From TrEMBL, chain A:
Residues 1-157 form the Clp R domain. Pfam families: Clp_N. One of its GO terms (molecular function) is serine-type D-Ala-D-Ala carboxypeptidase activity. It is an enzyme of class 3 (hydrolase). This is D-alanyl-D-alanine carboxypeptidase. Signal peptide: none annotated. Its EC number is 3.4.16.4. Keywords: Carboxypeptidase, Hydrolase, Protease, Repeat. SUPFAM superfamilies: Double Clp-N motif (SSF81923).
UniProtKB/TrEMBL annotation, chain B:
This is Transcriptional regulator with GAF, ATPase, and Fis domain.
Amino acid sequence: MNMFDTYLHTIITEGAVEAQRHGSPTVEAQHLLLAVAAQEGTAPQRLLASAGLDHQAVLAALDREFDHSLSAVGVSRASFGLSRSSTPVNRPPTMGATAKLALERGFAAGPRKKDLRPAHVLLGILQAEVGTVPRALALAGVDRTDLLTRVQNAIADDGTE
Amino acid sequence: MSATDIPTPQDPADALAAVVALRRLADQLEDAAVEQAMRAEWSWPQVAEALGVTRQAVHRKHAKRLIAAGVKLRRRSP
């Protein structure tokens, strides 16, 4: 496996761990984003950190989006007194629609497979204009368009090195 | 509650996001409720009927998790 394949494998594997941790039967774009934010020392992780998004901040942003979306229909998570499930493990999660879309978009941004970089995964995740990830980023005060530009620039710089 | 009693967000993005969040909350509630019932020694058929699904479906979805959590499960069939 080349460097990109190894990185992609890590993100998908760790994304599945994040999905299980959150009791989701599918790996969604937000789980990939959490996995990207957790890979210390990688270019995509540094790009997220430069926008104030470490793993904890992404988690907080997603939690906020969840509560915000529920509140739009008058529902509060707190009123259910839910504790974390004792063991949030069902079957291994499968790839969900939003994660597939994010990866497809990331791959499509690379002219050839051998040109793909880890930042293309983040690029694909950030390109979604609707859904949980862009809503969470907006609620966290992150300028997604600006971050997207920085990711694109980082990919371009990497290609000219 | 009729459909007209449910507050409907004006922004379609908010309305769609509420659907996603409610599904996620329902999943979390189901996990907690099934665990609570099984700890109270409900049978699989009782839990399945209360949820309106087949007992195979509820067993397939929750058994492994509950066993891992150390919940003592009743036999699936009497």
